[in-house]
Write the structure tokens for this entry.
Amino acid sequence: MGTLDNNTYFHTFKEDISGAPLPLQFTFPFCYEPHPLAVMAAEELQTYLKTQNEWTHNFGIEENNTAPAIGKMFGVLVVRDQQDKLGYLAAVSGKLAGSNKHRYFVPPIFDMLEKDGFFLNEEVHLNALNRKIESLESSDELAQSKNRLDQLKDKWDTQLEQLKTKLKIQKKERKETRTRLRPLISDDEYEIVMEDMRSQSLKDKQELQRYQYDMHLALASENQQFQQLLAAISELKEERKIRSGNLQKQLFEQYNFLNATGEHKNVVAVFHDFDQSTPPAGSGECAAPKLLQYAYSNNLTPIALAEFWWGCSPSSEIRRHKNYYPACRKKCEPILGYMLQGLSVDPNPMQQETTLQTALPQIYEDEDIIVFNKPAEFLSVPGIYIKDSVYNRVLQRYPNAGPIIIHRLDMSTSGLLVVAKNKEAHQFIQEQFIQHTIAKEYIALLDGIIEQESGQIDLPLRVDLDDRPRQMVCYSYGKPAQTKWERIAIEGSKTRVRFHPLTGRTHQLRMHAVHPDGLNTPIVGDDLYGRKANRLHLHAAFIKFIHPRTKQEITFEIPPDF
């Protein structure tokens, strides 16, 4: 490792990079192919991770390590110093091995773990509050008070129901008596009977009111004791809430980000100016902001950025060991958007119209439907920035058609897409999708060997709120997602499979392929969950449904071009 002085984190390349071309612009961090220089820097960092003995952390890639396994995101930033020398900085997202201070990695923007700092001091108080709250919530006194209250309430509720039943029977008997006596007695006699019954009814109501009053008094004393215990817990929770809020506010005051123009802005203002939101916890702790902050603070010019995952994947989201990943959206998009001001940055590829000259092959059309073989990287419906899509192209041909889109394919997925030319056809076919009576098959090429011949995957999915549009497995809030699959062939180091989706969740096949509890193998070219290639090797190859006009079964099949 080379350094500029004794207190920097500038690493010189071990390999000769004199002939390596520099990028024309800085990396767009939310969708990129790592520049060769950034790849070289990342590989040198990975060598360090494999060989260092300065700290201990279980990434889940070593056998016989019983410590909890936690993978980490690392980043490298290729920079140029004031002497025009190229090198790179390295960073880790969050803390590593319980510390923010490491020889190889740039320091955090603010070190929460600084000894005797306000964060650790306040954390001591918050932890004490947590322990006290947990102790009170699990105390025998609270449990016994609640039990006594519940038993007493059950007893009075039971007796109340018995009383109500008795009064209901008496009311019914009075009604039957009135009905029976009315034709047998005179009006005067009947009036006397009615007056007596009204008196009985009033007594019944008074009896019920007295019981409910007595019940209230009986429960009040026990309930008061129970509520006093709950109030003590609520008071501690309110104190914890206030202290946590003040601590978070104090933390936010420490995060002031630089950009390439030399300006600085606090994290609260950064998020407010972006979308008027409040910074989520951990904002500024990711690798990319740390790298840029250190570069700007030390007169280093950013050249290229890359971030990669090292270690085992979290259980819910997908991270593959050594794969490169874009910066997260929720925490980093506002921050990096500000920090990159003043740099010439690659354009956002997701905002570039690249399909205007792309043909949209049509394989069938009648008065009700059109069936397309949608190309990969072609939108089914218009996006925020890109308008070219199946929807718009159909609308250009048939301005009065619609509703048009019955179902969708992901932008990266190719294959059979059915659209409607009129409302009746749309409604008829959409109902088949809702009822899951449409048969669909997808062909995929997986980036590895699948030993099993077939199976079914059942993993509930929901969007990753911190990093849209990525999905994650979530058993608490995810929507059910099931996929049947069968192996077609092993092709070298790849496996061709056929997917039969039983549900239609976003990225369902991609997630079910890559997740450890699924096939644990990404689809070739999956730039979200695997490795980027010339395209995503996923193709909607077969569809069968009932035609809206003929009411006859109709089938379409077209093989993939991979």
